[in-house]
Write a structure and sequence with these properties.
The structure holds 2 protein chains of 2 kinds. By secondary structure, chain A is an alpha+beta fold. Chain A contains 6 helices and 8 strands, in the order ααααααββββββββ. Chain A folds into 3 domains: 55 residues, no CATH class; 74 residues; 107 residues, Sandwich (Immunoglobulin-like). The longest helix of chain A is centred in the middle third of the chain and has 70 residues. The radius of gyration of chain A is 60 Å and the shape is rod-shaped. Chain B is mostly helical. Chain B has 2 domains: 84 residues, RNA polymerase sigma factor, region 2, helix turn helix motif (Rna Polymerase Sigma Factor, Chain: A, Orthogonal Bundle), CATH 1.10.1740.10; 63 residues, Orthogonal Bundle (Arc Repressor Mutant, subunit A), CATH 1.10.10. Chain B contains 9 helices and no strands. The chains are: A alpha+beta, B mainly alpha. Chains A and B meet through helix 2, helix 3, helix 4 and helix 5 of A and helix 2, helix 3, helix 4, helix 5 and helix 6 of B.
């Protein structure tokens, strides 16, 4: 090969400019290794380009330290194997967290169910209590009425004493003649047997004439055992007999529980 | 230490060898970038990233890629063009104005602090004919192919090669004076 012609062709300038293909580059490298003149020529061309490019260099310090810092960071973020295990660890953490979340969710669901049923129980209790309060209020009202009645100056109190059938029985009649009202306090009467009911009679003594005043219905259910009845009669005495439910036209005197005479005042 | 040995060590991730190579080429590489971005600070910033890239891709260099310096210049040129595009400077290769590095050098001379070295370089460049400056900048710094240079300067493609040869020779003669 004619080295001089090769150099004169301008191919080495193009080589330094990076204008050649990879194959052409390798051929140039081969020639350069065989012919020192070619190698020298390449270096001289490159040197002139280096000088020329240097003229445009930015007028600021070009510190290798800055590059070195960057490649050091590059190494730590790429090479250190800790990062691998770190990602695994975080993925385990992820799984653990989601399992805990599920367990927590189930637990909370159960807790919620329990609380719901507890609320139902408490709600029922509350309703019961409200009913009790209502009953107590009603009972109180009744008692107040009763008290007012008893204290009324127009009231006549007639104690009824136990008779042969039931000597320990007793009752009281509060009679407001003006308002024609009777209040029977039946506290001292035993509970009537099934199918039977107490009946209150107004009596005239001479001759003995009984008039039914009313029945003591729902005897067992009424805690107060106070019964309101109306009495328009000019009664001289009151008696209470045990009669078949629904009451009778005439009193069964064999079943006369209590009897009392209105004191003449 | 020979260049080949430095390159081999550098490819084995020897930071001392890399520092030597940086010292040898930083000004030139940053200079090539500056002919494209025409901004000292931006050029220096891009230049750092180019050397980081060179380090990361050390093993992809071999002699089929041409001269080591040429390989780095290619990386630097691409990085600079990428930055210019991303910054919406729409001056692609073809549209780059015929604003040659002489203008950078002249702007530096206006600066009072300019050192003797730069003045020497300027006289070196100013002795070059304009058509030489054009050919050299397009081929070596802007990465134009011979065909693209012939179209840009409106000269036959065969002329590009011979004119480049004579211009480089002239530059070398100027350097020896």
């Amino acid at each position: 090969m004619n080295v001089e012609e090769y150099i004169e062709s301008g191919i080495l300038e193009l080589y330094v400019a990076g204008q050649l293909s990879e194959d052409e580059n390798l051929k140039v490298v081969k020639h350069a290794s065989l012919y020192p003149d070619v190698q020298k020529e390449i270096e001289a061309i490159e040197a002139s380009i280096l000088v020329l490019s240097k003229t445009a260099a930015p007028k600021v310090p070009l510190d290798f330290a800055k590059v070195y810092d960057k490649i050091k960071n590059l190494n730590t973020s790429k090479v250190v194997p800790l990062k691998e295990s770190k990602t695994n660890w975080t993925s385990y953490m992820g799984w653990a967290a989601s399992i805990l979340l599920i367990i927590g969710g189930v637990y909370l669901f159960n807790q919620n169910e329990k609380l719901q049923s507890q609320i139902e129980v408490v709600e029922n209790e509350r309703i019961n209590l409200e009913e009790q309060i209502n009953e107590a209020k009603i009972s109180l009202t009744k008692s107040e009425e009763l008290l007012a009645t008893i204290r009324d100056k127009n009231i006549t109190v007639i104690p009824l004493g136990g008779q042969e059938v039931s000597p320990t029985s007793y009752a009281k009649v509060y009679w407001n003649k003006k308002e024609e009202k009777l209040y029977i306090d039946a506290q001292g009467l035993p509970e009537p047997p099934d199918g039977m009911v107490y009946q209150v009679w107004s009596l005239k003594l001479n001759p003995l004439t009984p008039t039914s005043v009313g029945l003591l219905e729902d005897f067992i259910e009424d805690d107060n055992r106070i019964f309101n009845l109306t009495n328009a009669n000019t009664s001289e005495a009151f008696g209470i007999t045990l009669e078949p439910s629904g009451g009778s036209k005439f009193p069964n005197l064999e079943q006369l529980y209590t009897l009392g005479v209105v004191s003449s005042s | 230490m020979q260049l080949e040995e430095l390159i081999t060590r550098f490819q084995q991730k020897d930071t001392f060898a890399f520092e030597r190579l940086h010292a040898m080429y930083a000004e030139n590489i940053c200079g090539v970038i500056n002919t494209i971005v025409k901004d000292d600070n931006l050029a220096e910033e891009i230049c750092q990233d180019v050397f980081v890239k060179v380090w990361s891709n050390a093993l992809s260099y071999n002699s089929s890629k041409g001269r080591f310096f040429t390989w780095i210049v290619n990386i630097a040129r691409n990085a600079a063009i990428d930055v210019m595009r991303s910054k919406n400077y729409k001056n692609q290769k073809k549209n780059l104005p015929a604003d040659y590095f002489v203008s950078i050098l002249e702007s530096k001379l206006e600066d009072e602090e300019t050192d003797v070295n730069t003045k020497g370089l300027h006289s070196l460049v100013s002795k070059l004919k304009e058509k030489c400056i054009q050919v050299i900048e397009l081929l070596y710094f802007k990465g134009y192919t011979q065909k693209e240079v012939s179209e840009e300067l409106d000269i036959p493609i065969g002329t590009v090669k011979t004119r480049n040869r004579s211009c480089i020779s002239q530059l070398r003669e100027n350097m020896q004076l």
